[in-house]
């Protein structure tokens, strides 16, 4: 019989060999029982064992269950929902998880929490004062620019600063060998192509919709357009399983999934956005020091898949 020991979310993550953010996602979906002791979440070891036994009979594990998939309207915040006293960074890239780790150990830093919202919703949350820093990769089809045209519209009367984090290659995920000979956006006109889409508000979804608008293609005419998933890895996995012919995502995620090829389509810019009034706050001074440090840059270079020549550069002030 399992000793009924109380575990922290990190201890659960260590037992299951998954990330702590995935543990929170399992709790939210009520696949893993949890309870609060004050503001802290705890899980009984017996419930962890029950969860493991419950999933042992599953022959094909759905990658969606392994990736944080959070409703756009209700992002998860680690450990506490007391947003008024928290420093929250919103966005989905692993760069932000690494930044939070550096920020936690920085002398003038803070213990930052993470909200895994897509680009549009992250910027909107910044405008509403729900997060202190947002990140985005939203392409504007009219200007060909990333992020700045959206920031100017979405933060009315709110001076903001846009700082470059990285460039990434976006493209199509297709089955190994590209059996349907998919080449570019025009292939979305074909009736024999089924896609798996990203959720509304994500930068990848905006990229798709902007190109469809420019080409005069209706989303309703595309097989699978209304079927959504909330991570690059989940999209890649869907294509690898043969449940879709095409998905859109960044090159780095593609490298983690077997059975698919990547067709480069467009280089994108991934930026962080902060309110100008916060520039002199100690936490943001610490962030600037971190992202402009060699140590932080070298760690990101080790991950691969990022262009870092402009890391830490102020791209625009609105």
From TrEMBL:
Q: Where is the Helix-turn-helix domain?
A: 7-54
Native organism taxonomy = Bacteria, Bacillati, Bacillota, Clostridia, Eubacteriales
One Pfam family from the record: PBP_like
Ranges where the PBP domain occurs: 102-291
Natural source organism: Desulfosporosinus fructosivorans
UniProt xrefs under SUPFAM superfamilies: Periplasmic binding protein-like II (SSF53850)
Name the Gene3D superfamilies on file: Periplasmic binding protein-like II (3.40.190.10)
What's the protein name? Helix-turn-helix domain-containing protein
GO terms (molecular function) for this protein are:
DNA binding
Domain of life from the UniProt record: Bacteria
Write down the InterPro entries for this protein, in alphabetical order: HTH_17 (IPR041657), PBP_domain (IPR024370), SinI_DNA-bd (IPR010093)
